[in-house]
Every structure is written in structure tokens, then in C-alpha cells.
Amino acid sequence: MKQLIKIKEVIGGSLGNSSLIKLRMTGLRSTAEEKLKEIIVRPIKIKKSVRLQFTIRYQTNDITKNYKKEEALELLDERMQNDFYFLSVVTLDKVYQLDLKKDRITSSKNQNNKPPSLSHNKEKVTLLSAKSTFFHKLGITSKAGHLLKGKEAKFRQINKFVEILKPHLPIAIKNKTYKVVDMGCGKGYLTFALYDYLTNTLKHQVEMKGVDQREELMNSCNLISQESNYKGLSFEQGKINAHSGQLDILIALHACDTATDDVLIKGILSEAQLIVCSPCCHKQVRKSMKMPTSLSGISNYGILLERQAEIVTDSIRTLILNHYGYKTKIVEFISGEHTPKNLLIIAEKKYPISVDNKYLNSIRELKSTFGVKEHYIEGILNNE
Length: 384
Ligand SMILES: C[S@@+](CC[C@H](N)C(=O)[O-])C[C@H]1O[C@@H](n2cnc3c(N)ncnc32)[C@H](O)[C@@H]1O
Description:
Helix content is 35%, strand content 26%. It is an alpha/beta fold. The protein has 3 domains: 2-109, no CATH class; 126-238, Rossmann fold, CATH 3.40.50; 279-384, no CATH class. The protein has a 7-stranded antiparallel sheet, with helices on one face. The chain has a 7-stranded mixed sheet with strand order 10-9-8-11-12-14-13, with helices on both faces. Helix 1 (2-16) runs antiparallel to helix 2. The chain is globular and about 65 Å long. The site of S-adenosylmethionine has 15 residues, from helix 5.
């Protein structure tokens, strides 16, 4: 492991003279963490300090965390000893390759020596243009399309949302009008963003609706839609569970408690092609959940019980979706630094409803383990 020590000195030095561009850990060991793919590290500036941002890439999701230099080097050491054989270190003038199988470092000249970007928001072309009218109307940009102070994170989140959805969105089909609904759309940030991306970038014909119980928000969203000349985009005051109609794409972010289940039910029953929701609080299961004796240690802590209820609730939700023929994925939507409510359930209708009971049996086992009598979503689906 001599070479690992040496490469850490190279990294330390390149951080010292601000020449570090990127690190990449690859070549999984047999002892590697399950479903891990690779780790990419790059320096970023948060306020006035430099941190190392680790993007831990798994087969189904990425997790991003920022560390101070010393913590980062410790973590890199640990990851290289347990998970990976190869590490590439890209600096302004050189590219180093560490091969722990051979305990060898090779280096070559960096032909593409652009200075490192320390921007927290990766310097890249965003999917949505800050110049789009709706960003200005929603108070995120100036009239000229410049981001307003304090709105950078919101702009980033909105773009990140569309970026995550991009690989799951259906392709445009001639003469097909996609029915899209955002349930519990609030101020409509994501509704406008998805509408803009679907129509202006992907060239889909869409009939899109934002639904929320708050009338004043729906009125102001309708005004923005009209002023932006967004044909086919309208907003409606109403309750999620009262909404009816055919759906192709359904999104719902941070709709409280069982409102997320109402959304899933609407999507499942209308066989929506794509359902995307970001659960908010999880009161229904939390109230009835009784921890099994073997996990009694967890019941000493309210916050852990709450987390456990979230895990049980979202697991039941994905199992229900699986049963109804949806391929599901859970990803982190926004960095946990901003909000702990950062999971996104993405469900694509791929299969017919399951004929065996494997998903329902898993739900039964989960419920019996955690003393949950019935999950809200099951009750409704059973009555349909
Ligand atoms: C936390 S906000 C999220 C807004 C938006 N989805 C976003 O992520 O920016 C939740 C919104 O859901 C709406 N909402 C919650 N339960 C609802 C229900 N049962 N029917 C309609 N709207 C609901 C609230 O009025 C609120 O505007």
C-alpha cells in the first residue's frame, strides 16, 4: 500500500496548489460494497472553503456528500482498501493512475488541462434555460434571465429534477398527446419545468395540469401560464383524491402523508406510464407501527422510529407498484444537506399486473414484522 500513501501526497499537494481536477475510483474488489459502481471526487467551493465532493455511484442511484480534506483523504484510503483497485487522479498538468493490484503509479501529461471548476453547481449546461419566461415569472431569474441572489439552489433543484426524469420520459410520438398531471403542485415550479422540457426540448404534444388544494396558488399559476403562452398547461384547485381522468405521466412532490398514496392510486388505476413522487411525512404507518422485540433498541428514539416508518411506508409503496407491473427505482433527489425529505420514487409501467403473490407476500411479512394492520394504499386499492 506504499503507492496509496504516495498518491494521497499527490492529492494533498494538488489541493494545496489548487490544481486538482478530479479523482475516480474504479475496478471493484470482491469485498466491495454491494451494488457499488464507482466513486468520483471533485473539489468544490462552499462559501469560502474548499470541500471534496464524493459522488458515490451505485447501480440504481448516486449519493453525493461533501467532506473536508482530512476526512476525504481518510475516506479515500478506506474505499481504496475495501472497494477499489484503481484510482485516477487528474490534475491541471498530469494524470496519475494508481493500480493497487500491481501497487504501481503511472503518470502522463494532461492534454486537456482546463483549470478545475470549483463551482458547487457543476459547471455544465443546464437542461432548462434560465432565460425561460417561467423562471422569471416564478421569481427565480431577472427579466434578462439572470439568476436572482438566493435562488441558485432552487434553480439547481428544478434542473436536477428534470435531469433525473429525463431517461424515464417517453419519446415523442406523432399525433400522441401526453396527459401529464402534477398533483399537489404548490407554486408550480416543477410543473412549469417539466412542461417546458417536454414541449420545448422533447417536442411532445402535452395536455398538462397542475392540481392543488390552494386556490390562490392555482390562480397565480394560471396567470403565469397564460402570460407565457403555454398552450395546454393549466392549473386546477382541488383535492388529489377527487381528480379524475386518464394519465400518462404523473408527478407529485412532497404531498403530505397519505396524499402521496392518493397519487399512487390514481397513477396505478389509470395505468400511467410514469409515476414520480417524493414522499413527505409518513404519519399513517408511524401511528400504527410497533417495533418487533428484536429491534426494541430503535424504539428508544423518536427520530429513528420516524425514519423506520418512512422506510416501511416507502417499501410498501414500491411493492404495491411492483405488484401492479411497475419497475421502481428510489433515488436521492436533492442533497440531504437541504432537506431530509429527499427521496424520489420513480415507477415505470413495464409489465402486466403480477400473477403470483410475491410482492403481496412481502408486504404481508413487512406489516406483520412491524405490527402494521393495513397500509392506507392497500385499503383503497382493495375497494376498487
Ligand atoms: C410541500 S408542497 C409541495 C409543492 C410542490 N409539489 C413542490 O414540490 O414544489 C405540498 C403541496 O401539496 C398540496 N396538497 C397536499 N395535500 C393535498 C391534497 N390532498 N390535495 C391537493 N393538494 C394537496 C399543498 O397544498 C401544497 O401546496
